[in-house]
Amino acid sequence: MSSPGPGRSAAAFVRARRTAWERLGALVARAGGSRLPLEEVEELDRLYRRAAADLAHARRRFAGSDAEGYLAELVAAAYRALYRPRPRRAALADLLRATIPATCRRHLGALGLALALLATGAAGGALAVALDPGAAELLVPQSVREAVAAHRMWTGHLLSASPGVSGAALLHNNVTVATLSFGLGLTAGLGTALLLVLNGALLGAVLAHAAAHGMGGQVLAFLAGHGPLELSALLLAAQAGFVLATALVDPGEWPRRAALQLAGREAAVLLLVVVPALVLAALLEAGVSPTGAFSGLERGALGLGLATALWAWLLLPRGYRR
Amino acid sequence: MSDAPLLEFETPERVTVTLELAGVGARAYAWLLDAFCIFLAWVTALLLYSISGDLVHEVQALSVAGQILAALSVLMAGWGWDVAWEALGGGRTPGKRLAGIRVVRADGGPVGLTEALVRNALRAVELPLAYAPAILAVALSARRQRLGDVVAGTLVVRQARFDLSRYELPATSAARFPHLRGGGAAALSAEGFERLTDFLRRRPALEPAARARVAARLAAVLAARAQVALPSAAEAEEFLEALVAAHAEGR
User: Fold this and answer.
1) Given B1, B15, B190, which is nearest A52 (Cβ)?
2) 3-class DSSP state for residue B10?
3) What Cα–Cα distance (Å) separates residue B180 from each residue in B170, B174, B188?
4) Of A56, A69, A275, which has the smallest distance from its Cβ to B160's Cβ?
5) What is residue B107's three-state secondary structure?
6) pLDDT digits (tens, 9 = 90+) for B97-117
7) Is the Cβ pair A12, B107 closer than 8 Å?
8) Which residues contact A73 (CB under 8 A, 6 or more apart)?
9) B155 pairs with which residues across the strands?
10) Are A287 and B64 inside 8 Å of each other by CB?
């Protein structure tokens, strides 16, 4: 390799080398789009090494100049062209087939905890209302109580049991609850746990209250379409929250910061499922549940079917072919 | 070079590749510009549409599911904008282009469709919280990454512009100041050459009085260093051009 030009000035150096740099730039640009013939790859390699030497020279002699900046960018681009990994065509397929289910199954403990808390809340809420109907005053929103007393159905929804106004509001509400139960993982999981128990209690209380007034079947039929998916999304969001909490409380052999970053990546993968599931649930809730076009049985089959498919995809073991 | 945070890694040839990371300011600016572009696009579409139809009543006439789908498609247009520009435009939306930043992979390479999809899909998590998690994450993390950046393995870097034309031989030669030929060129350091060509290129945009003042001061300093007679104020810029030419002509 010849030594980089000993030129006194950056201008002389650039003039002596510029043709070669521009040739390298052109090769790099073409390497991005198509396969280069062998002789051009060899030329790319040769020009790259020479440009790297030029960059070292520019760094020493003309630090901070445009010549150095240009060379640094050129060398970096050539480096990527030469050393780039084989393109991963199936990144999205990989995510769906392996990464997401594996992530969910890696944190079964967190998922189990979320499920247990939600179920405990629901059982508690239902039990409280069953034992003392006065508890409904505390746990069941007034609008729902009025509706139940008048024996008419309200088009409220599951997680907050507020009267539904528009589909966008439902979606926003669900996303907020899910995001909160994820984000509150940063309170060492306490916030997430509280949110799960509260939402469970609300659900249990509403169901028990409605059942006590002979409307249990009606409410169940209303919830059947979107409820399973909505609860699934809430569980996954809470699982993601607990994954964060675990990293915070028990980072293991990692520094807390690194553990939290790793956990954030895992949790984000779970959120990739939560958001579409909530969108789908909101569509069902607004489009299927309130209309009389479907019987309760059909809605139940649809809602349970979707939720079952979701959990089968996430949890059932299957062979993984590369 | 600014004092922006840098990300450096070394190639097998022991060449250091440096990426200059973009901060909250530039990214928020780019976001605002993009939001404005999307807003303008919707306003234009609305105006065009309102010539023939009554949108408000038509949306109200939609079923709830239809309204959800409409709201979603409005949201998706915003995401689609980001995804499409980042995947096809070398990591730059129009807003990012104006803000001088771009999205790259962790090795500095251009982002593909998957990366753009993932990093923008995670906006759904940050948007309901008014982007607070994203702003905190960009401000506090060493690699200036949002949640979406961490998951997609992307970085947002500043895009520097380098101009090799300053090293070309200028049209005006050093002939008018023959005494600059010899030691005169040595008066200019490598960094001085960059700054002087910066000035010569930017001078048309300068206020005339300021331009003359800067030229005179530069000429005074450089003439003293080159040990030549101080040119008159009227000749100052010609002297500077000649100095650049002499320096550039040097081997």
Assistant:
1) B15
2) strand
3) 15, 7, 11
4) A69
5) coil
6) 999 999 998 877 788 777 787
7) no
8) B160, B162
9) B104
10) yes
Q: Which parts of chain B fold into alpha helices (H)? A: 24-52, 55-61, 64-88, 94-99, 113-121, 123-126, 132-140, 147-152, 190-202, 208-226, 236-249
Question: What are the beta bridge partners of residue B18?
Answer: B8
Domain coordinates of chain A in residue numbers?
Answer: 10-83, 92-315
Q: Is B128 helix (H, G, I), strand (E, B) or coil?
A: helix
pLDDT tens for chain A, residues 1 to 322: 344 444 568 888 898 899 999 999 999 988 876 778 899 999 999 999 999 999 989 988 888 888 888 998 898 888 888 887 665 555 677 778 888 899 999 999 999 999 999 999 999 999 998 888 888 888 877 777 777 777 766 554 444 444 434 445 555 577 778 878 887 888 888 989 998 998 888 888 888 888 888 888 877 877 888 889 989 999 999 999 999 899 889 988 888 877 877 887 788 788 888 878 888 887 787 767 666 667 778 888 888 999 999 999 999 877 655 4
Task: Tokens for A47, please give them.
Answer: 């020009």
B contacts of A287 (beta carbons < 8 Å): 63-65, 68
Alpha-carbon distance A67 to nearest alpha carbon in chain B (angstroms): 7
Report the candidate in B125, B150, B122, B121 with the shortest Cα–Cα distance to residue A185. Answer: B125
B68 touching chain A per CB within 8 A: yes
Q: DSSP string of B160-177?
A: ----GGGGSPPSS-GGGS
Buried b (16+ CB within 10 A) or exposed e, B83-114: bebbbebebbbbbbbebbbbbbbbbbbbbbeb
Q: Do A64 and B169 touch (CB under 8 A)?
A: no
Give SS3 for B17: strand
CB contact (8 A) between residue A55 and residue B167: no
- The tens digit of pLDDT for each residue in A28-60 reads 988 876 778 899 999 999 999 999 999 989 988
**Coil vs helix vs strand at A173:** helix
Looking at this predicted complex, what is its ipTM?
0.75
Q: Which residues of B touch A264 (CB under 8 A)?
A: 147, 150
pTM metric for this prediction: 0.62
Token couple for B92: 């730059």
- CA pair distance A170, A147, nearest whole angstrom: 19
Considering only CB atoms, B162 lies closest to which of A9, A73, A91, namely A73
* Contact: B68, A167; criterion CB under 8 Å: yes
DSSP codes joined into one string, A226-248: THHHHHHHHHHHHHHHHHHHHHH
Residues 81-140 of B with CB under 8 A from A: 107-110, 112, 114, 117-118, 121-122, 124-125, 128-129, 133
B162–A contact, CB cutoff 8 A: yes
Q: Does B190 touch chain A (CB under 8 A)?
A: yes
Domain locations in chain B as residue ranges: 6-158, 164-249
- Retrieve residue B183's tokens: 């030691």
CB-based contact (8 Å) between B55 and chain A?
no
Q: Which two tokens stand for residue B220?
A: 């005074």
